[in-house]
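Try this one yourself first.
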């Protein structure tokens, strides 16, 4: 069972990306939109190694994001785990070597992550545990769709590296 270096380095790499995401990634803004590198790395790991390790990585990365960003603890984890559930569909039945699978995983994963995170924030706001109130349609139009496009372009740029990684041999 040769899982490769990335499998074992994933948790420290994700925690490092969580720190970068909440500090330095703001400098990568294009038209006011910054990429979600943590989510992309979790999706790449899920495409390479499957949904089970992807869920673990999503949980750990989500907690890291919430700790470094000051968001509601666990909200990013739940949202990222939902995104992994969508991206994990492309692990075995659909080959990640197909151009559309990683791009669809990045696009749909980003949308699912954003929608679930927004629903969690809305639930906390309705319960009176949060004062943050984001307008739904404006958030989708001004934040979610541009971030989805940005993440999809970054996934397209990562495809040559992703396709060089060996297939996971274990289930």
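Now uncover the answer:
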């Amino acid at each position: 069972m040769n899982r490769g270096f990335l499998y074992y380095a994933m948790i420290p790499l994700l925690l490092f990306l969580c720190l970068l995401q909440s500090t330095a990634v703001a400098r990568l803004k294009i038209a006011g939109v910054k990429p979600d590198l943590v989510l992309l790395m979790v999706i790449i790991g899920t495409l390479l190694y499957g949904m089970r390790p992807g869920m673990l990585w999503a949980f750990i990365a989500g907690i890291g994001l919430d700790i470094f960003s000051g968001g509601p603890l666990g909200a990013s984890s739940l949202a990222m785990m939902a995104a992994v559930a969508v991206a994990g569909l492309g692990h075995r039945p659909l080959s990640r070597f197909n151009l559309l699978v990683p791009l669809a995983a990045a696009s749909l994963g980003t949308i699912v992550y954003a929608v679930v995170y927004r629903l969690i924030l809305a639930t906390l706001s309705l319960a009176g545990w949060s004062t943050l109130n984001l307008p739904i349609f404006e958030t989708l139009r001004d934040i979610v769709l541009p971030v989805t496009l940005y993440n999809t372009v970054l996934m397209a740029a990562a495809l040559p590296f992703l396709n060089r990684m060996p297939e996971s041999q274990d289930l």
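Discussion: Helices lie at 5-22, 37-49, 51-69, 75-87, 100-126, 136-162. The chain is about 70% helix and 0% strand.
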